[in-house]
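Hi everyone,

Forwarding the result from last night's run.
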Amino acid sequence: MKKLSARRRHPLAAVVVLLLALAATGGLYAAFAPAGKAQADETSQSLAIEEGKKLYTVGCASCHGTGGQGSSDGPPLVGVGAAAVDFQVGTGRMPAQQPGAQVPKKKVIYSQAEIDQLAAYVASLGAGPGIPTKEQYSPAGADIARGGDLFRTNCTQCHNFTGEGGALTHGKTAPSLEGASPRHIYEAMQTGPQNMPSFPDSTMPEQQKKDIIAYIQTVNGEKAESPGGLNLGGLGPVSEGLFGWIFGLGVLIAAAVWVAAHTAKAKKS
């Protein structure tokens, strides 16, 4: 007992006890930690990349190169991220039907599972924006008025005031945002597809993107209504003024001609 008591007073006794406690904690964690789940996730990701590479080789490599390095027919994909793949393939723009000034939206030919696999493979080629979560792009609780200000400042030059789309130069167009899903709108802002500039979080924070999505859904969603009646394409005051001049002034001129003709007939009779 005296020897044990003396050892407990040794200066290194606390260090030894601490090391033993750490070793015991590490052993218990290794024994009971959900390592199987982490390994399963890693295996699942590896399988997704492998399957995505097969899909890429068949449907994408002829334009973008076997390793995503790009070619004369398609841009490089190294560093574009999973979000770019989810947008381009998820909206049917890719694979491209034919080369041109702009790749149009068309019917989606891949399932969502295949799109996820393609995205996993392209993401493995280089770091880039990931596919956003529902919490990131959901417009719930967003500021619609603030979204309108942001949209008019950054987007109306191409998409017009309510996202109806418009013509650009050299055969290019800004597509209509009617019916566009919040996820694809978020991904478009994040990645800047084709002619659109990108708005990363460093330029436009996540909350501002949500505000814009809420505004688009309000003015150009599936259930959106025009409180002022006929929206004339949503092009703003220019089209409304032109309509007023052509239709309104035309009606006044026709009425004046009719009055003058009937006045002349009345004088003759």
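Residues 42-125 form a domain with the Cytochrome Bc1 Complex; Chain D, domain 2 fold (CATH 1.10.760.10).

Cheers,
N.
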